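Priority: medium. Attachment 1 of 2:
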């Protein structure tokens, strides 16, 4: 039995009671032209390059991953990172993938998109319904909105 899996963290960034969504380039292999939230895969460097908190353990790995991904993808700094939900699906080749959705507040910066994204919007829950969001993103926004009282 295979226990290998992919771990992805996504950031639901909140600023002025709105959520940041980004549009993927049409050239992207998966979900080209659709809207999503920033995030990405856990990389070994997300913990190997960080000093251990004890002899054998690394703490705050998801938080470090999502801070790196958000900075790389949209050039923003975030704060107050909190758990929203988790999702599991199988990628091509039956590779299990877990997405851990995290909420966070905008801290600083101006949005500057990386090469994989072509547009962005700050949207309310109602406005988000008007965008072609990747499956599950709208549900995550709703869960997050309930948790933070928006």
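Attachment 2 of 2:
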């Amino acid at each position: 039995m295979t226990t290998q899996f992919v771990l992805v963290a996504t950031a639901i960034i909140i600023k002025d009671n709105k959520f940041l969504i980004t549009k993927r380039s049409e050239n992207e292999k998966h979900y080209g032209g659709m809207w999503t939230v920033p995030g990405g895969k856990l990389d070994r460097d997300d913990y190997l390059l960080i000093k251990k908190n004890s002899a054998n353990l690394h703490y705050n790995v998801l938080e470090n991953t999502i801070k790196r991904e958000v900075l790389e993808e949209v050039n923003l700094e975030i704060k107050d990172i909190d758990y929203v939900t988790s999702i599991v699906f199988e990628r091509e080749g039956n590779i299990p993938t877990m997405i851990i959705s995290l909420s966070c507040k905008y801290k600083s910066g101006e949005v500057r998109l990386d090469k994989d994204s072509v547009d962005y919007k700050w949207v309310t829950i109602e406005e988000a319904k008007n965008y072609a969001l990747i499956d599950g993103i709208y549900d995550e926004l709703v869960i997050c909105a309930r948790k933070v009282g928006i």
